[in-house]
C-alpha cells in the first residue's frame, strides 16, 4: 500500500504530517515537492520589503517530516485513473491513494504582453525580482494588477518600501471589480480601502487591464499607464500538472479512484454546495479531511473483507475571519468585528505563528512574531 502527497504547501504539509500519524507503519508514504522547503505563502509579500524574512517563512521539509520519504522533484502530470504521477526526474510514482496539493499558478488570461512583462508573486524568487526592480528603478510608478489578498498586500509593501528607502514612488493598484478584496464582506472591503488610501496608494477599481508591453500597461478603457515595475496578482489557474485546470471537487475531496484534490489546485465545493475560496485557511482544513479519508480507506483496504467503503468525511467551509497587512497597517475581520492597527497586526502574526507551530516549525513561529510585532 502506497500513499503519495504531491506538493508541500499548506495542504500538502498538513496532509502528510497527519498521514504520518494515521497510516499503519507498513504503508509507504511519499511527499513530492519541487522545493526542499514549505513556504508560508501568505507572508510572501513581506519578502519584497524584508528579504531576511525568507528564512522565517521557509521551513526545511527534512526538519518537519517524521517517517514520510521526501522526493524533491517537479510533478509533470498526474494520471488519476491509473494512479500514477510522472516526475521531472523521469520517475513514475505509482500510488494507491494520493493527495494532490500542488497549489495554483498565476493566471494571465491570455492578456497580450502581461505574462511576458509582469512579475507574478508565487515564489520567493518572484519577491526578490519585485524588490530588485523597485530598488533599481529608484522611484517612478509601480503598477499592481489585481486587488485580491495578494495584490493588496503587495501594494502595501511597495508603498512602505518607498517610504523606508525615501524614494519618490507612485503605487497604483488596479482592480477590475467595483471594490478591492472582491468577494469579501463590504465592511472588510471598506476598511482595506481606507488603509490603502491612508498609505497614498492610487487605487483604481472598475479598471481592467487589457494588455502590456515593456513600459506600459494598457487599460480596457484605452488609457495607457507608463510603469517602472508591473506586478500581476490578477488571478489563479490550476497547476500545469493538471493541465492548468482546477477540477471541481466534492466535499469529501475525492476526485477519482484513489486521487484526492486539495487546496488551491481544486475548485472545492463544500458540504453545503458552496464554492470554497482559494485560501491558505481552506487548504489547511481541507487537508485534514482528505488525510482522514485516505487513512480510513487504507484501513478498509487492509481489512480485505470487501464490503462497502467507509463513509467519508466532508468538508464545510467555515472561516474564523480574514486578515491582510497593508505595509505596517493591517485589517482583520473576526466574526462581525473589523479591526485595524496593532490589534489587526497582532492577529496576522498570530495566524502565521500558529500555522508554523502546527507544522512543527516552532523556532520559525517565534521569529515571525518577533519580526511582525
Ligand atoms: C502574496 C500572497 C498573499 C496571500 N495572502 C493570503 C492571506 O492573507 N490569507 C489566505 O488565506 N491566503 C492568502 N494567500 C493565498 C494562499 O497563499 C493560498 O491560497 C495557499 O498557499 C494555497 O495552499 P495550497 O497548499 O493549496 O498551495 P501552495 O501553498 O501554493 O502549495 C503548493 C505546493 O506545491 C509545490 N508545487 C507546485 N507545483 C509543483 C509541481 N509541479 N511539482 C512539485 N511540487 C509543486 C509548491 O512548491 C508548494 O510547496 C496569499 C497568497 C499570496 C501569493
Automatic annotation (TrEMBL):
<dbReference type="Pfam" id="PF07992">
    <property type="entry name" value="Pyr_redox_2"/>
</dbReference>
<protein>
    <submittedName>
        <fullName>NAD(P)/FAD-dependent oxidoreductase</fullName>
        <ecNumber>1.6.5.-</ecNumber>
    </submittedName>
</protein>
<keyword id="KW-0560">Oxidoreductase</keyword>
<keyword id="KW-0274">FAD</keyword>
<dbReference type="GO" id="GO:0016491">
    <property type="term" value="F:oxidoreductase activity"/>
</dbReference>
<feature type="domain" description="FAD/NAD(P)-binding">
    <location>
        <begin position="1"/>
        <end position="286"/>
    </location>
</feature>
<keyword id="KW-0285">Flavoprotein</keyword>
<dbReference type="InterPro" id="IPR023753">
    <property type="entry name" value="FAD/NAD-binding_dom"/>
</dbReference>
<dbReference type="InterPro" id="IPR051169">
    <property type="entry name" value="NADH-Q_oxidoreductase"/>
</dbReference>
<dbReference type="InterPro" id="IPR036188">
    <property type="entry name" value="FAD/NAD-bd_sf"/>
</dbReference>
<comment type="similarity">
    <text>Belongs to the NADH dehydrogenase family.</text>
</comment>
